[in-house]
Amino acid sequence: GNVTIVPNATAPAQNLWAACVFDGANWSCACPTGTLAAGDLPNGPAAFAVRFVAQAGTSGARPGVVRIESNGCTSNDLACLRYAEATVPPARCRSGACAVLGLYGGIRTTPSAALTARQAVNGNGLQVVNQDVSVGAITVHSGGAVAAGIGVTTVAGTPSASSIRQNDNVAFGWLGADAADCTQCLFASVFGVRPQTYRRLMGTLAIDCTAGCTAADVNDALGNSRGRVVYLFGAGGLSITDAADSIGSAASPVVLIVEGPLAMTAGAAGATLRGAVYAGSVTIDGGTVTGALISATTVTATGGTVVYDGATLKQLRVTTGSYVRIPGSWRDHP
Fold this sequence. Notes:
Oligomer: single chain
Helix content: 10-25%
Shape: elongated
Largest sheet: 7 strands, antiparallel
Distance between the termini: 33 Å
Order of helices and strands: EEEEHEEEEEEHHHEEHEEEEEEEHEE
Radius of gyration: 24 Å
Number of strands: 21
């Protein structure tokens, strides 16, 4: 979770910084890999420079935290913009601002079960695996009944039935199994905020799936975005229908939120979803989810596999999400 600052290629002892100049109508910016030089930007009546600095605490680096600093000047003058300058050149004015940013992780609470459902888990043929003793090796956690045809694999020597937590009214039913607020609470228990708030976070990639989305739609969006938090809004949901319909990988797992239904058909027998997957409802007849799968309502299955992967979930918690300003850290000065 430590944030590594990109080094300055031409001056390793200095942090890399970028700058922007305003020409009266538009901003022109430069983000060099080395030291910003005169001529990198046109002249203009206003400019600012930005850099990131590792934020250390009393016992070393603070995971998930970084400091951002900005200098603003009344013209594009490197002597004014650069951070090493102790005094502002004559006829120039400079102001500075800084804040400490903290990572609001893609998942806030790591799920302890491979499969979580607010209501019942129906059907047969689905295989659910959790052999991670650090989280109790829970295979299925549900607010309703779990069908006898659901196969589970837990720690060797442990009865399979003991890995299932079903009809859990304390966790899921205290607001009423069908209450809208109950859905909100389940979402917030994993992601820390209500769905609409999460959708508006800067690190969330929102895709309109009113008419339904495919794995290709998700992968196309991920290919054009460095973020790996994907929020599919709309009643159409996500359909995984082919063995090639894989989303996420061991190196780049995803946080995937499907506001509507998630359907993995029998034709998706070779498809994989790697990461933390949350959906309004789940129908799974084929394919594999590695990480954790959460349904806001029911799960209906005739096949498929869900495998708990704690390392994947930890990776998502510390490498995905949005940076937010830590309260009280903002500073500005002339």
